[in-house]
Amino acid sequence: MSPRPPIAAELAAHLPTGEPSRPFVDGPQGVTELRAAMREYEESVAEVREQTGAQIDEVVVGGVPVIVVRPPAGDPQRGVVLNIHGGGLIAGSHLSVLGSNVRTALGLGCTMVIPDYRLAPEHPYPAALDDVHAVWEWMLTGGLGAETGLSRTVVMGGSAGGLLAASLILRLRERGGDGPDALVLVQPQLDDRNTQPSTHEIDLAHFWDRPSNLQSWAMYLAGTDALPVEAVPARATDLAGFPPTFIEIGQVDLFRDEELEFAARLSRAGVPVEAHLWAGAFHGFDGLTETRTAQRAIADRLAYLRFALSGA
Questions:
Q1: pLDDT tens, position by position, 60-88
Q2: Which structural domain, as residue segments, surrounds residue 38?
Q3: Contact call for residues 153 and 176 (beta carbons, < 8 A)
Q4: So which residues are the catalytic ones?
Q5: What is the pTM for the complete model shown?
Q6: Calpha distance 161→85 (Å, rounded)
Q7: Domain-embedded: residue 3
């Protein structure tokens, strides 16, 4: 096992004291606890609409609940971001950190589409990917209405959402579908094998750790014997044809090495790539928005999104 890099002091100050005594997610009860914890970050559509002045619509696309965020009436539309939430494939919803997502959309001047995909273990692969794909096709075929410009599109996902974002690109490539102009992967979960050195650095932690990741993948891939290329992005042998890609990486994240390798493989496939590695940052550090590390990471991410939506 390689030594674990130190956690940045400003981030470590927000972690519980003492050593963790169990995995971050521990079996079915852990799934229940994670879902309950993530519900604490859900926000009311009505309240966020009132606070921000954004146009926020709730629609259902092929059985998938979707939130559509638009700038206030009369403001220019600068493309569309399909934003896929995280939660280890087992938790989270389209209401998670809704206020932050809405403010991001307003700051970018874009439309943001947030799907509430089905979760494992109740709905293993390919349910979540099918849901995201259905929403993507709905966007491309006029679901947003003629007034919303689709001149520039970005697919973005954090953690498990990053997995589904990369999987969507692989599916579209294999099926000949139209892909986005850019891909933004925020600390993405990419590899079920857990063989990279960084996966052994985070054995038990107060954030996403190795046992939790093993359970997450087992729940997601349950009943899948022969893995299609789209199911696990890191297993894809050919990454040619991906759109320009941004990858945000924490140095003290068990996903670190699979993300760095994915960035390198994209680059070798001729894909324009930006990979930002944040020293001392653990998984989910960007949620600590009062810290300078999170502020810098979010600023870089937003700068890339503005660039991608501008078409420059």
A1: 999 999 999 998 876 777 899 999 999 99
A2: 9-310
A3: no
A4: 159, 253, 283
A5: 0.97
A6: 5
A7: no
